[in-house]
Amino acid sequence: MAEFIVTEAFGGPGEEGEARVFEAVKAAYSGDDALGFWRYPLVTQETVREPDILIADPELGLVVIEVKSLPIDMIAGVTGYRWDLGRPYYGKMHLNPYEQARRQAHLLGEIAVRKSNLPQLGTRAIVALPLITREEWDARFGHLLSDVPMLFADQLTPAKLRTALERTPPVRYGSPLDDEGWAALRSALGTSGSVPKRRIRHLQAPPESTRKVDLIARTARHLHAFDLQQELIAKTIPPGPQRIRGIAGSGKTVLLAQKAANMHLKHPDWNIALVFFCRSLYDQIRQQVDHWLKQATNGEQSLATAQHRLRILHAWGSKDQPGFYRTLASQVGVQPLTVDRTPDGSPTAKLLFACRALLLDAQLTGRSLQVFDAVLIDEGQDLVHEEPELTFDEKQAFYWMAYQSLRPVARDALLDTGEPEARRLIWAYDEAQSLDTLTIPSTRALFGEAGAQIFGSGVTYKGGIKKSEIMNRCYRTPGPVLLAAHALGMGLLRQEGMLAGLTNKADWKAIGYEVEGQFRGGTEVSLTRPQENSPNPLPTFTDDPLVTFQSFPHRRAELEALVASLTDDLNYHGLQPSRQILVVVPGLEWEPYQLQTEVFQALRQANLSVYLPGNKDVNVPRQKWPHSDPNGFWRDGAITVSPIMQAKGNEADVVYVVGLDRIAQREDNIKLRNQLFVGISRSRGWVHLSGTGMEGHPLAGEIQRVLAAGDTLNFTYRAPKRQLDDNG
Fold first, then answer.
1. Over the stretch 6-54, which tens digit does the pLDDT of each residue have?
2. In the chain, at which end, N or C, are there fewer CB atoms within 10 A of the end residue's CB?
3. Are 2 and 34 in contact (CB under 8 A)?
4. Furthest-apart CA atoms within the chain: distance in Å
């Protein structure tokens, strides 16, 4: 079926004609296979900018349509490809629309062929004149021979438009695509076909091998299908706020990085901030944004060339690294608070205290916080708190600070949507990954009564861009692993009933589950996760369980088993210690650091190289400033051992969650359950759960029931302590 993406809402000067042609293209391809974009993100040299309309057609290949909304009396003369104008058109007295479209088609064709390995891909270019009929053109220029393929106003019917495209001579000759070729082209044009490829050894893995490194290689060769929702999130620019609620592993960080890059390329004069909470994500996000800038410009632009306008900012920042809060404190002209000048509390609580103080300072001095034209927030669940004293005027302090940092969108960009004011605040979150709060960053929770005014009426902006998106496909974590993560994180199979979770069919379906039964007290509910919503193919390559659990009589025995398993991963299974293996430890406050030290000592005694996140060096205990690297999470050649809080946003092929007895002691603690969910969902492949003295413990029995459940969770519904329903 045809799928069409409007990357930015129609309504700007000269776009009425483009909208008319785009709607005609949509009508012409209704019911057929096609992929269409209005303003596909491609910005290179000044003469080759994003195409007005791009069509991917399995029969024709790629078709670029350059739209010129000119009346006939504005064209004074035509000489070959050159058009002379009687009066300026956006400051120009001469146009060469076909050459512009031809160059775009040629470049897009080269990029698509390179990414899809389709040497038979054809490309076409045509100029559309929605204000001029064929008769009007012929009456004025019919005596001239013209090689310019054109689409006139009276050809914007489905049959005539398709005929005009079919008769357009190719810029690059090709052949119709079969089903495999068509899927490859869609992937090449989409986000999935452009995601940075993992560097993996032994890509030519023997098909019969059961070594993890070979199974990982087979998995890595798997191409994601084109995901329309990913394209809508990554390639569209809303004219106001947007909320993105994504399941763990759905690619929120990748899509926000691409969205920020596209915003900068389309609007290089905008000040844009991409903000995140966990410092260990800093290098990852910078690399992602840099990749997408280069991808969209054929390597001509990068983060280095965009940094003065597109800024990657940690939520707080430090003296040696600018952050979002510190940037705004400078704007207001106040000395930013440091961590040691805030009350005792979690990292989130300390940050929100500082944000609230800054908002009060701005209010008292009357100074504006407005710096940015767009703010994108990753890990949004970690920037809220339920404590009233950390809010500002009944609004979440960080989000209200971010909202106040934005310049209002120009009125003509609102396109008569009816909103009294709009600001481009875009935040992404997964409520199940919050480790410090039970608050869900819904619009109502963030802004209170002001939320309705901020979002305005309706669920979409004019042009179809959604105000809220829910991502239900998990590309990172295999289906059985994600099922176990949700079951254990929410306590779905607890004997006493679930602790947290969704309480209606619609919300479960929205995050990719099939549901049978009713969410009424005492009734039976069944949850199944279809393979299409967890496309990681690893479960199809091995019959071995991807999630295992073992209880040991004491910690020494648990750590000895961990060392043996890690040694097997490195030696027999051929895994790299860094980025393919991750050991995480749970616990509240100081607890995980004590267990981290025990794991560190056990691995060092076995002569395994170890890295503790935040350190500058490997194989040393926790280092303090100045011998530290707050952004560090991986070191080549070393196994990372991390508290779960620091592991957020990172991933590995094999994850070990050590010390589950810490959770068992308080198995009804929702924050610890969230840690368990985050730890398990870091995995791209296998998860090993272990603890001590858990025989006969309720949590051990619950884990065994989850692992025995297969691909379907059956449980008796009881209302949970914490509801995660989507309440707007």
1. 998 766 656 889 999 999 999 999 989 999 999 998 766 655 578 999 9
2. N
3. yes
4. 94
Q: Cα–Cα distance between 527 and 547 in angstroms, integer? A: 18
- DSSP-assigned letters across all residues of 90-103: TTEEEE-HHHHHHH
DSSP-derived letter for residue 549 is E
The pTM assigned to this predicted structure is 0.91
pLDDT digits (tens, 9 = 90+) for 366-380: 999 999 999 999 999
Residues 382 and 436 sit within 8 Å (Cβ to Cβ): yes
In the predicted model, is pLDDT for residue 91 greater than 90?
no
Where does 211-279 have alpha helices with state H?
212-220, 228-235, 252-266
Mean confidence (pLDDT) of the chain: 90
Take residue 311 and report the two structure tokens written for it.
Answer: 């800024």
Strand partners, 377: 275, 427
Judge whether residue 284 has pLDDT over 50.
Answer: yes
Question: At 469, phi and psi to the nearest 5?
Answer: -125, 145
Contact 133, 155 (CB under 8 A): no
* Cα 213 versus chain centre, distance: 27
Task: Report the alpha-carbon distance of residue 445 to residue 452 in Å, rounded.
Answer: 11
Q: Report how far residue 168's alpha carbon sits from residue 126's, in angstroms, rounded to the nearest whole number.
A: 7
CA atoms of 501 and 81, how far apart (whole Å): 62
Residue entry with tokens 């050649």 = 637
Name which of 281-285, 551-555, 564-568, 576-580 the model is least confident about.
281-285
Tell which residue, 644, 638, 651, 636, has the closest CA to residue 686: 651
How far is it, in rounded angstroms, from Cα 110 to Cα 171?
A: 12
Q: Please, are residues 680 and 674 in contact by the beta-carbon 8 Å criterion?
A: no
Contacts of 607 (CB under 8 A, 6+ apart): none
Structure tokens at 185: 């082209």
Mean pLDDT score, 156-161: 97
- Average confidence (pLDDT) over 113-134: 93
Both tokens of 175, joined, read 């052949």
Exposure letters 645-659 (e unless 16+ CB within 10 A, then b) = bbbbbbbbbbbbbbb
